[in-house]
Structure formats: structure tokens, C-alpha cells
Design goal:
The chain folds into two domains: 8-103 and 241-278, Rossmann fold (3-Layer(aba) Sandwich), CATH 3.40.50.10860; 117-234, NAD(P)-binding Rossmann-like Domain (Rossmann fold, 3-Layer(aba) Sandwich). By secondary structure, the chain is an alpha/beta fold. The strands form two sheets. It has a six-stranded mixed sheet, sandwiched between helices. Strands 9-8-7-10-11-12 form a six-stranded parallel sheet. Helix 6 (131-142) runs parallel beside helix 7 and helix 8 crosses helix 9 (224-231). The protein is 40% helix and 20% strand.
């Protein structure tokens, strides 16, 4: 399903200058022998529909970062199950029959956790209750997690996650982010922005029995949570692993149309993408 040379792709967001997607995708297409361009474009949410409508037939697809994942979800003529569950599309495959929407963040989290040796935990904690927390919850469900504690400042923000968890067979319990103590878990996923203020005592309490940490942040690394995990002697991984693996799934989609179908020479593709990420 590979398309001819000259194909165009971009990552859209607001802001988007920090995105490492161009390095990752360019490295992948070089290994695949595809003369495709992949660039950045700053697009504000109100301008999304007009920008999308203005794309020519040379365009193969888009990667979407915040705050455009909801707009991309609405624009998609078809969506995969992960997109439907999360209400977020971070990948649009542009076809003659309309845009096909995918959420590769979920798969990126699953693959990143596998790489960290987290395979089948029964319990986990999500720190934060924003949009990314939905992808984290779906990813934990795919790993077989049965109970998830959500540490959030507002109890009301946990309710939609509890509803989603119920549909997935996961018990979701909300706990105050400023709680004095937290139940032990083998893995925590932090979904807060990198510059979110967290008191040291709160971060230390989260880290004390928080197991391994996957922090989705990569631009403000190490975060205050990562520092707390290190103080506690536990492992903390940045969001670069998630970024790498969600990008690989995007390359599968753009090159072959299917996030579950491996690429030709995929081990070489992944190695080149990893090198591009490390070299940044």
C-alpha cells in the first residue's frame, strides 16, 4: 500500500515547535526508501477544519498533538477502537473515502511499558485526569490491569475515567492528589504537563509506593515526579519511549494502512528512529 514519492505528511499542534516527530518519521522513511516529506505546522484548534480541507491529493496523513486530537476525532470518517474509547485521534490517514482516525498513543504506552518490563500488572496508578489519562487507562486495560487509582486534584475529573473503566472491566478509584498516603502499586503513569506544579511532599508520597514510573512528558525532563522517583530509589522513564513507539505505529499506518501490520525490515526502522531520538 506504499504510495509514490513526493507524498507529504505533517505533525500539527499548537504549540508544535517542540515536536520530535519530524526526526522520527524522516528516519523511518529513509530506511524504507521513501522520498516522503514530514514537517511541522502550527495549527490553532479553530483553524483545524479549514486547514484540513485545504490539503491536496499529495497528502498521505497527519500526526496530531494537543489541542487538536478532539478536532481530529470529529473530522474522521472512520475511527479505530482506541480512538472511540478515548475520544482522541492523534493520527489521520487521508484516503479518497475520507480521513481514517487512529489513536497510537495507547499502543505507544503499551509498548513503552513492555520495554520497561511491565507486562501484566494487576493494579496501577494514573497521576492526572486529563485527556491523556484516557489513553493511559485504555493501555492499562490492554495490559490486563484490574484496578486503577487516579490521583487528581478534582474528584469530578475522575468520574469520566471511572465510566470508561467500567466499560473496560476496570475498577477505577479516585484519590486526592494531595493525599497523605497512597496504596502500593507496581506501576504509575504520570499524565500531567511537564511544568505542572507539584509539592515535593506530594511527589515523594506518590513515589514511595508507586512502583516504576512512566511519565508521558519528554520536553520538560526530568520532571518533579521523576526527581521524586529517583529520590526514592525507583525507576522513572520519560515519555520518549511512548513517543518512539506511537510514532512507529503511525509509520505503519502511513506506509501500509494498518497499525498492526509490521513494516518491511521493521527492526531496522525502529533502530533508526531510536537513534534519531537519542541524537536529538
Amino acid at each position: 500500500m506504499l504510495t509514490p514519492d513526493g507524498t507529504r505528511l505533517e505533525v500539527w499542534g499548537d504549540p508544535v515547535a517542540h515536536s520530535l516527530s519530524p526526526q522520527l518519521h524522516t528516519a523511518a522513511y529513509r530506511v524504507l526508501g521513501l522520498d516522503w516529506s514530514y514537517e511541522r505546522r502550527q495549527v490553532a484548534e479553530p483553524a483545524f477544519d479549514a486547514e484540513l480541507a485545504g490539503l491536496s491529493a499529495k497528502w498521505r496523513g497527519l500526526s496530531l498533538t494537543m489541542p487538536l486530537k478532539g478536532a481530529a476525532h470529529r473530522a474522521a470518517a472512520w475511527r479505530d477502537r482506541r480512538s472511540e474509547l478515548t475520544g482522541a485521534v492523534n493520527t489521520l490517514l487521508l484516503t479518497a473515502d475520507g480521513a481514517r482516525g487512529f489513536n497510537t498513543d495507547v499502543g505507544g504506552i503499551v509498548r513503552a511499558l513492555h520495554e520497561e518490563g511491565i507486562v501484566d500488572p494487576e493494579r496501577a496508578r494514573i497521576i492526572g485526569a486529563g485527556a491523556t489519562a484516557r489513553s493511559a487507562l485504555v493501555a492499562l486495560g490492554e495490559l490486563g490491569v484490574q484496578r486503577v487509582d487516579v490521583a487528581a486534584r478534582r474528584a469530578a475529573a475522575v468520574a469520566p475515567l471511572a465510566e470508561l473503566g467500567a466499560s473496560l472491566g476496570i475498577e477505577v478509584a479516585g484519590v486526592g492528589l494531595e493525599a497523605a498516603g497512597f496504596e502500593p502499586v507496581p506501576v504509575s503513569i504520570a499524565t500531567l504537563p511537564g511544568d505542572a506544579p507539584i509539592a515535593d511532599e506530594t511527589a515523594d508520597a506518590l513515589a514511595e509506593h508507586g512502583g516504576a514510573l512512566l511519565d508521558v512528558v519528554y520536553g520538560h525532563w526530568p520532571t518533579s515526579l521523576a526527581h521524586a522517583w529517583r529520590r526514592s530509589g525507583q525507576h522513572a522513564a520519560s515519555g520518549r519511549g511512548m513517543l518512539l513507539h506511537q510514532a512507529l505505529l503511525q509509520v505503519r499506518i502511513f506506509a501500509g494502512g494498518d497499525p498492526d501490520a509490521a513494516l518491511p525490515d521493521e527492526s531496522d526502522v525502529l533502530a533508526a528512529m531510536r537513534l534519531a531520538l537519542v541524537g536529538d
